[in-house]
Amino acid sequence: MTKVLITGTAGFIGYHLARVLLTDGFRVHGFDGMTDYYDVALKRRRHQMLLQNDGFTATEGMLEDNAAFQSMAADFAPDIIVHLAAQAGVRYSLENPRAYIESNVVGTFNVMEAARELKVKHLLMASTSSVYGANTDMPFAETDKADTPLTIYAATKKANEAMGHSYAHLWDLPTTMFRFFTVYGPWGRPDLALFKFVDAILDDRPIDIYNHGNMYRDFTHVDDLVRGIRLLIDAVPVRPEPDAEIPAWDSLSPAAPFRVVNIGNSDKVRLMDFVEAIEDALGMKAKRNYMDMQMGDVPATWANADLLMNLTGYKPQTDIRDGVAEFVTWFRDYYNK
Ligand SMILES: NC(=O)c1ccc[n+]([C@@H]2O[C@H](COP(=O)([O-])OP(=O)(O)OC[C@H]3O[C@@H](n4cnc5c(N)ncnc54)[C@H](O)[C@@H]3O)[C@@H](O)[C@H]2O)c1
Question: Coil, helix or strand for 259?
Answer without folding.
Answer: strand
